[in-house]
Amino acid sequence: MTAVGIDAIEIWTGKLQLDLPGTFAPAKGEDPEKYTKGLGLETSSFPDAYEDIVTMGANAAKRLMDRKGLDPQDIGRIDVATESAFDNSKPVSTYIAGCLEQVYDGDFHHANKGERKFACVAGTQSIDDAYNWIKAGRNRGRAALVIATDTALYARGDPGEATQGAGAVAMLITEEPSVVELSTEQGYGSADETDFLKPNQQFPSVDGKRSMQVYLARMREALTDFESVAWDTHPSDFAYIPFHTPFPGMVRKAGLLGYRHMIRDTEIEDALEGRIGRQPREEDFEDWESYEEAIRAYMDELKETEEYRSWYADAIDPTLNIARRVGNWYTGSVHVARASALRHAADNDVDLAGQKLLVASYGSGAQAEIHAETVAEGWDEEVGALTIDEQLERRYDLSYDEYEQVHDRHNHDMDVELEEFTQPEGEFVFTGWGRMSERKYDYVE
Ligand code: CAA
């Protein structure tokens, strides 16, 4: 069977940053450690006055096409995943194609374009669509461009404000990929939930605590479903497990649940028995509440064990390095987590080719999806080309007043002029609105 997967990745961060413990926490009268230790965040990314989901997506895509030496005719499909769209009809992919056509010879007139929506899981679903399109033999030898781009803003004063972020991830999906091959097996955990939604509004209505419970419940369902078609997973099966990362503290909870599930009935559970006992089994309890209480007590002990701590440090913590500095990028978040892990491996000379990742995506509303990936020969060269560190270093550091101005500038219900904080160079910029309220873009040399 032909291998299909991710051949190249590019990441574009919003050009501004907000220091959460240093600037945001004092302005809110909160303890900085809520951000660093509790949520696990240091800074978040924001778009400058001339940036939006189109510019960030187009800039990531251009960088990817330039690096891979691609022309528009090499691309047969452009799918954009976003939950920050500003138009209920015209897809963001047409805007991005229009931007790219300004700078390349040729056009994307024979490429299939679309926009995927299912909260943060839509980026992974777009990869799925591309995978299926290639596997079905409909691609005529061409690659698919998947772009996950979001400006994840919450209303000011909403608890979610702490987890904002903005950026785009562009991925090239091809046969014989250079980064990762995707497994055919997938697991789903999906249910009609009202944890986080945007009923025709820009800023989300969120039940924060409930959203965390739903995330964990759907992830657990998806893992069981994955195992039913793949195999019983074990912690040693995967070099890294990138999760959707709304904030690193959420992944801390998901990682512990996943570990408990994977070690059940294994030699690890046996080895831990003398210290923390065996895992509570539902059939040994009279009701669900007492079972849950016993599970919570077991997990409190499990998380302190050397076995768990060292697995977490190896398989999970490296996936969070970028998220800590950029916040939530919604559709791009799990793809940032994968890139973060691969970059950590490259920086530490880990020989990763042939090893497996377990990728756990999630979208509110709600659906989790879990699949495995096999790292391809050539991954290190691709990952070595990422410039995310330099981009993060170059971000303009906002004061709290400036943050409020930027938030207003990107509020669709406000019409706020704002002087840019950074100078655009070699990138697409937003220039204003046309006669039908369409957005206009130019390429700045
Ligand atoms: N020192 C150390 N830790 C501290 C602390 C301090 N001084 N103060 C607080 N903390 C800890 C808290 O104990 C808590 O950790 P635990 O959950 O492990 O107990 C953590 O920091 C956060 O503190 P709070 O719970 O008090 O924070 P909050 O109520 O203000 O908001 C939130 C947290 C509900 C996640 C909020 O940020 C939110 O609504 N976010 C948006 C929704 C979201 O991201 N949900 C995630 C799942 S849904 C999803 O994944 C989809 C998506 O992308 C949105």
Q: What are the SSEs and their pairings?
A:
Elements: E1 4-13, E2 16-19, H1 20-28, H2 32-39, E3 43-46, H3 53-68, E4 75-81, H4 92-103, E5 112-116, H5 122-135, E6 143-152, E7 165-175, E8 180-190, E9 196-197, E10 205-206, H6 208-229, H7 248-263, H8 267-276, H9 288-302, H10 306-315, H11 323-326, H12 333-347, E11 356-363, E12 367-375, H13 379-384, H14 388-394, E13 396-397, H15 400-409, E14 427-433, E15 439-444
Parallel strand pairs: 2-13, 4-5, 4-6
Antiparallel strand pairs: 1-7, 1-8, 2-3, 6-7, 8-12, 9-10, 11-12, 14-15
The protein binds acetoacetyl-coenzyme A.
The site of acetoacetyl-coenzyme A has 26 residues, from helix 2, helix 6 and helix 7.
Fill in the CATH topology.
Peroxisomal Thiolase, Chain A, domain 1
Radius of gyration, in angstroms, nearest whole number: 22 Å
Read across the widest sheet, the strand sequence of neighbours is: 5-4-6-7-1-8-12-11
CATH superfamily: Thiolase/Chalcone synthase
Ligands bound, unique:
acetoacetyl-coenzyme A
Averaged pLDDT: 97
Broad CATH class: Alpha Beta
CATH architecture: 3-Layer(aba) Sandwich
Biggest beta-sheet profile: 8 strands, mixed
The helix tally amounts to 15
> Which percent range describes the beta-strand content?
15-25%
Distance between the termini: 44 Å
Give the CA-based shape. globular
Indicate how many domains the architecture comprises: 1
* Topology order in helix (H) and strand (E) letters: EEHHEHEHEHEEEEEHHHHHHHEEHHEHEE
Into which percent range does the helicity of residues fall? 25-40%
Stretches with pLDDT under 50, minimum 5 residues: none
- SS-derived structural category: alpha+beta
> What's the number of extended β-strand segments?
15
